[in-house]
Amino acid sequence: MKHLISIEDLDRSAIERILDRAESFAEVSGREIKKVPVLRGRTVVNLFYEASTRTSSSFELAAKRLSADVVSVRSAGSSVDKGESLKDTVQTLSAYDPAAIVIRSPHAGAAQLVAGWTEASVVNAGDGKHEHPTQALLDAFTLRRSLGALDGTNIWIVGDVLHSRVARSNILALTRMGASVTVCGPPTLIPRGIEALGCKATATLDELHEADVVYVLRMQHERMREAFVPSLREYAQRYQISAARLRAGQLLMHPGPVNRGVELSADAIDSPQALIGAQVKAGVAVRMAVLYELLAGGPMLEAVAA
Amino acid sequence: MSDRLFARQAESAALLIRAAHVLDPRVGIDERLDILIRDGHIAELGAPGSLPEPNGIEVLDAGGRHLFPAFVDPHVHLRTPGQEYKEDIATGTAAAAAGGYCAVVGMPNTDPVVDQPSTLGALIDTARHQARVPVGFLAAITHGLEGTELTEMAALRDTGALGFTDDGKPVSSAGMLRKALQYQRLAGGVIVLHEEDPALSGEGVMHEGPVSARLGLAGIPSLSESTMVARDAALARYEDARMHFQHLSALESVQALEAAKQAGARVSAEACPHHLTLTDELVRTLDSRFKMNPPLRSEADRRALVEALRSGLIDCVATDHAPHATHEKEVPFEQAPMGTTGLETAFAALYTELVLQGELELAVLVERMSAGAALFELPVPLIEAGQSANLTLVDLDAKWEVGARGYVSRSANCCFHGRALHGRVLLTLAAGAVAFRAPMLAATEAAPA
């Protein structure tokens, strides 16, 4: 596999292979010296056209723990700011002969375009509202650790599905892993035709007790200004996940950053059912496994397995 | 040639075409004939071998290839003035000739907008020097296409405008459009509408449906178009105005059009080759060549358009030829400008995808390819003695890959790029002059292999 653009690039066995490798890399992250020499002498470029804390820092750490040289370019303060086109920027960075370009863009299809302009492997770190495949992989990793297998589990994705690349990649990844997915949110924020992705859709939390996992999406304040919801108060009344709305045994996830008191109440965030911290932690190991899959491939190196 | 069509001076053709399969549904010809063109006019038609070879006249053996009345496109963007890096009158009309067209109608959404008689006058002057096939022009309905102030429609008509449109944008205000329809009684000229409700389209970049849901792209619902067709058809009826709907894309719009025609509204409509042959499934590639407005819609919409074109409910084919520079289209889908080129591929795309698939008869396609002429009060190309030569010779068996040898248009943003199509235009005569001749039809070659 050369690029990771979409979850559609992966079948179940490829996802499982990546998650298995991530388990090995998680072990590396527990060592005192958290490095393996897998990508020594190779360069990974992180090209971020959108603000990001978790994704950019975990990609950077993942590449460094694989001993790659890392260059991080952000749109603010770079030539991008000066009006350079994506194509020109990518071709400029490609002159450094990177092994991989990790790209985050506000526009759907950006990662796929980049793959056509460079010899490097391309990892989609989020393209518009389209996909965020490494987020879905780390979510699957986190769930697999908690549940063993995802087959037959019932996963609810709650909130602003319309604007969420996390939701799209997760619907695809989790259903591939054998889970059934239901999306739930205000009808203005559930895209028409979303069932075509293989999920169910509902507008109320009435049947939330059926869920084994409640995956809550970030509710952005500007959605109110755009009249998708009348007020955050009404949104919270109808859709906020609180400890009281969770039944015993349900797991709670969120891709971060959380708007406390909007989509999640404080007592839910801090409850033992929440996997939010585990998701962040999984980010590094899973992204190490993705870079390994694209750049090293083949069987595990001794140095890693040891 | 109409006094509202403009082209550079060209030498009148003199040519004897032997053994062409002449198909002109309006005249009722569908047989193998010789055709003599002299002084730019069709002088004589006769059984193969029956016409003598006049001295000094080139003889072309068509070898049974098809000769059609040349096509008329009521909807092209030639980009002059102001956006000549995308296209200009010379390159755009050369592309038209290469596609078998003998006349095209240019849209006013240029830079500056064609909303002043002086701007239109300069454009007409340019066309008189550069146009390879005759061009007519629509002027804007409102100043700057802003939808707030009427242009000097009467003066624009006097200068040569065929009609009026704010194409690229709808006339959002029903009150504004009503005034234009009332003023049409003084100025004349058809009112031509891009139908879209901006409040329903929002930030949409593709058809709203399962594909937009999958891609996370904002959708343009079909009813953004159909509700405006219904609204404006009601206005046309009330004001007894002559109205033409551009580039219909949705099943619901076809239904609204049918209701309007049944109610007696003086409305007509066009459909584009891309909407008639492609669907939003192609947008899954996120290739910006498939980004146009209105967007590619579902298979049900496509079928409804084809059926409406077949029945004549939709009157004609228009390309909405919309060239954009490569650097403008080589960006993520949401950022790319709307539009596809279409002049060089229209007939071949429709022939390959509709006629060869059994969805449309060849004769119906040939009629619809030039039906825009009458709707815009332009002379209708006819293959009969005494008519000006507006003809296109097409090899229906020739298979070619779109874009493999580049484009005549200055731009390459063609949604059919890379497709294998059947039907190659070999020769186009427009207003009595040879406007296009395929390299394989060298002047000395009488019988192409």
Description:
The complex is a heterodimer of chains A (about 300) and B (about 450). Chain A has eleven helices and nine strands. With about 300 residues, chain A is α/β, with parallel strands linked by helices. Chain A folds into two domains: about 5-130 and about 280-305, Aspartate/ornithine carbamoyltransferase (Rossmann fold), CATH 3.40.50.1370; about 135-280, Rossmann fold (3-Layer(aba) Sandwich), CATH 3.40.50. In chain A, helix 6 (about 165-175) links the parallel strand 5 (about 155-160) and strand 6. By secondary structure, chain B is α/β, with parallel strands linked by helices. Chain B is about 30% helix and about 20% strand. Chain B has helices at about 90-100, 115-130, 155-160, 175-185, 200, 210-215, 225-240, 250-260, 275, 300-310, 325-330, 345-355, 360-370, 370-375, and strands at about 15-25, 30-40, 40-45, 60, 65-70, 70-75, 100-105, 135-140, 165, 190-195, 205, 220, 245, 265-270, 315, 390-400, 420-430, 435. The two termini of chain B are about 35 Å apart. Mean pLDDT of chain B is about 95; it is low at about 445-449. Classes of the chains: A alpha/beta (about 300), B alpha/beta (about 450). The interface between A and B is medium-sized, with 26 and 20 residues.
Strand order, largest beta sheet of chain A: 7-6-5-8-9
CATH architecture assignment of the largest domain in chain A: 3-Layer(aba) Sandwich
Helix content of chain A: 25-40%
- General form of chain B: globular
CATH architecture field of the largest domain in chain B = Alpha-Beta Barrel
Query: Number of folding domains of chain B?
Result: 2
Shape of chain A: globular
| Radius of gyration over C-alpha positions of chain B, nearest whole angstrom | 21 Å
Mean pLDDT of chain A: 93
Distance between the termini of chain A: 25 Å
Determine the strand fraction of chain A and express it as a percent band: 5-15%
SSE-based structural type of chain A: alpha/beta
Order of helices and strands of chain A: HEHEHEHEHEHEEEHHEHHH
Any low-confidence stretches of chain B, pLDDT <50, length ≥5?
Answer: 443-449
What's the alpha carbon Rg of chain A, rounded to whole Å? 19 Å
Biggest sheet of chain A, in brief? 5 strands, parallel
